[in-house]
Amino acid sequence: MPLLGYLVVAMMAFFLVLSFFMGRYWCWNLCPRGAFLDIVMSKFSAKRQLPLIFSKGWFRLLIFILFMGFVVMRILHSGGNLILIGSIFVAMCLVTTVIAIVIGAFIKHRGWCVICPMGFLQEKISGLNKK
Ligand code: SF4
Asked: Residue 27's pLDDT band (boundaries 50, 70, 90)?
């Protein structure tokens, strides 16, 4: 199971490079969680308006810092144990998926994608190519 974490890391590396050239192509075409939210959660969503705070840059940055800080802190405390490091990424994936499902069910099916740290990072990286 922890080996799956390295698949997550490989996917992250792939979409972060991709985002430099193609923006959030990953989000709209390849992300398995995005597809799940579109195909499954759209059928169960309360379809409410997202809280205004979701669209605030500072809030999205805060979510990004919190998640990245959590991952970095856990890696630093792993003692270099590769199994443990792999399981950190699996846990991150599971936790964010649960949050995405809760937001999708009670607010809007793709609501998580507005504040997703990986979506945020892709947006920032693609912005570097436009400068
Ligand atoms: S914003 Fe996050 S969850 Fe949504 S499609 Fe992009 S990477 Fe996937």
From this structure: very high
Q: How far is the CA of 118 from the centre of ligand 1 (A)?
A: 6
The Cα 45–Cα 71 span in angstroms is: 29
User: How does DSSP classify residue 30?
Assistant: I
Is the distance from the beta carbon of residue 31 to the nearest atom of ligand 1 less than 6 Å?
yes
Structure tokens at 17: 């490079």
> Alpha-carbon distance 113 to 109, whole Å?
9
Rounded to whole angstroms, the Cα distance separating 95 from 101 reads 10
Rounded CA separation 122/128 (Å): 10
Mutate to test the pocket of ligand 1, among 33, 63, 67, 97 (most ligand atoms within 8 A of CB): 33
Taking the model in full, what pTM does it have?
0.91
